Amino acid sequence: MGISVRLRLLAAALLVFAAAGCTAAAPTPTVAPTPGAAAEPAATPVGNGLPGMPPVTDPHNVDAAAGANMLSDAAKAAKPLVYVPHTKSGEVWVIDPTTFATVGKYKLGGELQHVVPSWDMKTLYATDDTTNKVTPFDPVTGKPGANIPVIDPYNMYFTPDGKSAISVAEARRKLVFYDPHTWAVQGELQTPTCMGIDHADFTPDGRTAVFTCEFAGRVAVIDIEHRTLLRTIDMPQRNTTMGPQDIKLAPDGSAFYIADSQQGGLWVLDKDATKVVKQIPTGGGAHGLYLSRDAKQLYVTNRHEGSVSVLDSYTGAVLTKWQIPGGGSPDMGNVTADGSQLWLSGRYDNVLYVLSTADGHLIQKIPVGNGPHGLCVWPQPGRYSLGHTGITR
């Protein structure tokens, strides 16, 4: 997120808390850290899924259809490339993942935040929340098309049935639903107490989404089918400057992992998204969450200490930590289609990091432009995309 936007949102958040502090939801009681404990052993049933959503193939692993090299026909047609949006220079750089060479630079203007794969995996969208647009890229050619007007798209997701694109209008504290083909507005959902709304993930049945509220120290639980706010849940420690960031569902649907930069680790939300059950320390500036191709490991980027923590994605147990040589600011990215590499933007260092998922060693450091953010490694395995930098199932 851009510094100017952060300052504006932080000031607004302080005013809201001052006015509404006595009516805020009661915080969840603090739970002592237990890094090795299981979150919830039982898998979530996947019956009664959101109508139109592709069925879950394995209740123990909702990501089973996104295993190594399990590419859809649309993904197979794509040219393997890495798309890097820049918040400061307003550019998308395109990188060849084989040679690590920059093969394209596109000056799009604004504050580019993420490159987001569409639900059908046929288009990638660079989101710009300062000039209210998304720019489509054709993954077959790697070239951009004409801009599309979208309200404040800090981030973007797609409903699991593919019927709506969701613009996460962070500065305006709302979600805007669009027809993903015509880009006509379908409706809006106000989230006034979710200051800094930005990242999301969905329950196995696709009916519920949990969005993080970075400047409110809480999450917002959304009924996707009816487009209603079900509840907000406060974190045990409400960090409101750089609080809840990325969120990831455990493969068996037993928990949601929530990265909290200020807390230096993860909060663990129960499978029904009703309460925080524990916290897991990982490192300073915990930010991005990515699964290995077999979904057995969860990679946590610790942006302020230049490291990546590796967790058991089912239990949350910390397995190891990879330190980037010389430090750095690992932010967002994804795993390659074959699962062998983890690509991450160096948010504050104007570089990309390419790490081996076998042992975490640094394969390559690639200089890029000013302010690299939510990069997209493409193609990705899976049947459909939920958005962000490539959440596929």
Q: Kindly provide the radius of gyration, computed on alpha-carbon positions and rounded to a whole number of angstroms.
A: 19 Å
CATH architectural arrangement:
7 Propeller
Instruction: Pick out the low-confidence regions.
Output: 2-45
Which percent band covers the strand fraction?
35-45%
Number of E-type strands: 31
Look at the structure and name the CATH superfamily: YVTN repeat-like/Quinoprotein amine dehydrogenase
In DSSP terms, counting alpha (H) and pi (I) runs of 4 or more, how many helices?
Answer: 2
Largest sheet: 5 strands, antiparallel
Please report the first level of CATH classification, the CATH class: Mainly Beta
Distance between the termini: 27 Å
Portion in helices: under 10%
Mean pLDDT, to the nearest integer, reads 91
CATH topology: Methylamine Dehydrogenase, Chain H
Keywords: Signal
Domain YNCE-like beta-propeller: 274-376
Biased composition (Low complexity): 28-47
Signal peptide: 1-24
